[in-house]
Amino acid sequence: PATAFGRQRRPVSRSMPSGPFASEVGVGRAEPEWAALNKVADGVGKDRIFNNGETSERPLDLGTDVLSGELGSAPKKVDLLIVGAGLSGAVIAERCSKELGMTSLILDVRDHIGGNVYDYVEEHGIRTSKYGAHLFHTKFDRVWEYVQRFSEWIPFDHRVKGMVPDINGAKQLVPIPPTQETVNTLFGETIDSEAKMQTWYDGQRVKPPCGEATNGEEAALSRVGPLLYERIFKHYTKKQWDKYPAELDASVLMRLPCRTSTDDRYFSDEWQALPKRGYTRIFENMLLDDPNISIRLNVDFFKARAEGKLPEYGMLVYTGPIDSYFVAQGMPKLEYRSIRFEEIWVEEPEDGFYQEAMVVNHPSADVPFTRIVEYKHVPNQPQEVKEGQVKGTLIAREYSTAHGDPYYPVPNPENRALYERYRLLAEAESEVCFVGRLASYKYFNMDQAILNALEIYDNLKEKGKLEPKRRPEDFGPGDGPK
Fold first, then answer.
1. pTM of the prediction?
2. Number of helices (H), then strands (E), in the chain
3. Which of 23, 126, 128, 273 is least surrounded by Cβ atoms within 10 Å, i.e. has the fewest?
4. Tell me: the pLDDT tens digits for 280-291?
5. Who's near 44: CB < 8 A, 6+ residues apart?
């Protein structure tokens, strides 16, 4: 039978782990040697809403005016009209209000704040992300200092497993990115030092025919060699992008991490953490109860503009897809990938968990989904979940698709050239600031999106104009699809 949200209930028969993914350091932590590299201390940061007495773990009720989809009750004049209630728009609204006293009206076509970062507590009590797992990590001390103003944080070392066929074709659960354990398990090696792992890589790697990699396949082979490429990266890439690596930019796979150590953390940044009461609480603390900031959800900006319902504003901050803004130009659409989530409620799995880790990738061509996420593993679950009072678990199978909300720009020469045409149009719009991953056709990690927005705000203070300090590509690669 289905639940109230249409999720299927399925029996689980295979042997399950005996608890959340953990180490001797704690739940959600890497082994001691590697956990020690995470600078996040437990409980740092400030949650104003919690400190004021709010004990609910669920997103707050935003009220009928915010959710009505109508602009009649909205301010008639604002300094900033911000399209999109995600990270980029929220940071600019918060900074402009707190430091400059500027007013903003934030519009979003969705029925919640937080953009793709939005999370909530579902009907059984498990905190889950509506648009896929989000893992905060950063090397930018400015960003880490900033986000601590809006949430308490707990350290979290994201570790991913993959069901990968070994040399005999039998699927094994191994760390991704590949480590010594991955290679030993899949290929029967006995690597026990970084030097031996480096020697193994050196023997595997294939130099690009032209010296430098010209596409993703050449990049991957030059990084990890054919054994790992065929088993972990080739078909996973095809499922994610609907393109084989040979059809993608070299940059997409040139960033493949090649671990020579036993470090099985997915990221290596100094600060890796989860917000103690979820990501949505960050936005609530940033935006709610600020008299300078108004929010209206369920509002289509383009429809409201066509109907003449927008308020008077000094500057437009646009965080949506750049090609949607210029649709009247008749240019081709940029190519994006989206994700379809198949959520399944598992009634009572053995030991309370469905799989061995929060994220298990399925890179083989014989499985249609890319990965399964089980949110119950994360240590920022509500107390009832951590105490074992919720017996079932929620899993989400992820399928990459060309249809649906745009998630990831597709990086190839054709799209890059088309974006440059859109960028020139954007630069000619003197009263519009295009910001964020969709408006920049660039996958930003959360910390990169925050830093980009902070730097755009810096320019307002320094030059009197909201505009980027650097081009999107200058931030380096984001994580992209995981």
1. 0.92
2. 17, 21
3. 23
4. 999 999 999 999
5. 148, 152, 153
